[in-house]
Amino acid sequence: MNAVTNEWKSIDLFTQMKEHEQVIFCNDEQTGLKAIIAIHNTTLGPALGGCRMQPYPTVDAALFDVLRLSKGMTYKCIAADVDFGGGKAVIIGDPNKDKTPELFRALGQFVESLNGRFYTGTDMGTTPEDFVHAMKETDCIVGVPQEYGGSGDSSVPTALGVIYGLQATNKALWGSDDLQGKTYAIQGLGKVGYKVAEQLLEKGANLYVCDINQAAVDSIVSYAKEIGGSVKVVQGDEIYRTDADVFVPCAFGNVVNDDTIDAFKVRAIVGSANNQLLDVRHGQMLQERGILYAPDYIVNAGGLIQVSDELYGPNKERVLQKTKAIYSTLLDIYTQAENEQLTTIEAANRFCEKRLEMRSRRNNFFSHKKRPKWDIRL
Ligand SMILES: NC(=O)C1=CN([C@@H]2O[C@H](COP(=O)(O)OP(=O)(O)OC[C@H]3O[C@@H](n4cnc5c(N)ncnc54)[C@H](O)[C@@H]3O)[C@@H](O)[C@H]2O)C=CC1
Ligand SMILES: O=C(O)CCC(=O)C(=O)O
What we know:
Elements: H1 3-17, E1 22-28, E2 33-41, E3 47-48, E4 51-54, H2 59-80, E5 85-92, H3 101-113, E6 118-119, H4 130-134, H5 155-174, E7 183-187, H6 191-202, E8 206-210, H7 214-227, E9 230-233, E10 246-249, E11 268-269, H8 281-288, E12 292-293, H9 296-299, H10 302-312, H11 316-339, H12 344-363
Parallel strand pairs: 3-5, 3-6, 4-5, 7-8, 7-10, 8-9, 10-11, 11-12
Antiparallel strand pairs: 1-2, 2-5
Helix pairs in contact: 2-12, 5-6, 5-10, 5-11, 6-7, 10-11, 11-12
2-oxoglutaric acid is lined by residues 49-50, 76, 121-123, 143, 154, 274, 300, 303-304, 307.
Pfam family, one: ELFV_dehydrog
Keywords: NAD, Oxidoreductase
Protein name: Glu/Leu/Phe/Val dehydrogenase
């Protein structure tokens, strides 16, 4: 490879990083760990974000994911009003085959090397128990089980936040919070999606569900039978074409894209998946089709609220209060979008960027408590 190609390649990586502060490639031959940690913005505090494990087909695919996910975390922290920055980690590997305690300890060692700039925990493909191993190597782990001193499964408040998001959306569209009798198409019955499905059934809603994990599908079907609820199982892409009222993506990102957008018959999209829109222009396309989009990082902030609370000193009541605020924040974003003729994602982004600007000025106000980093005599 000649020098020109080399130079272009390195510029390209920095172009991809855009406004990200730092990207760390973590490689450990012995455990097979191949991970990327991305720190997007630490204006408000140390970066915080879960660690996803997925058999990414290429390193580029993993990099694309971690860059977008970590940027989303910056916005999520701002919108949820927690004093942390945006970061995320991805492990390239199959969560069903490649997990070992040593792999997570190796990840913990890399996190420790960042000296408090990055805190992590569970995400898609990882569980709180995985991070009990990582915790042996670093204090910068959140969301481990309560028996290990953590706040427990963060998918519980995340699912609760999705329910608040669905209620706010119901209110905006049909004038009532009541989810009973409406039909929801849930993609993914994992840690979050399964809990959302259970709660919707308990509230008298009807469901379409899909998951590649047959055990999760069987389990929700039998739960519905037990409580007299209605669940229809669909396969693969059929979930985009159902006649449900609301699509609830709780698996992977980029589900609203050029290939899926014309399939949707729903009135709204509200779910936990991070980065549901492949691009902001898909927000515009949803609006043109009369589909109300609940910005993902507003709706799915419950887990972040719980794990960040651990670092302040856990307080269950505060977690519940902050999670409940998802309802009013989302309604405010819907109103702002309508008043300012914006898409809902544009309105949410604008709200976060304004708040970041305001906070960054306050964080830089000089006082005796906030000493400058350089050495001056006072
Ligand atoms: N766990 C949490 O507290 C939070 C999760 N999220 C996001 O919510 C989403 C779900 O997260 P978790 O429930 O924690 O992950 P998970 O890994 O527990 O569940 C994901 C589910 O999606 C299913 N799935 C995978 N491919 C599929 C496909 N092609 N079709 C249908 N189902 C498929 C999996 O089998 C699994 O049941 C992710 O995008 C995650 O980033 C966001 C904020 C917090
Ligand atoms: O939910 C968590 O454990 C951490 C927060 C996070 O990574 C997320 O909200 O995507």
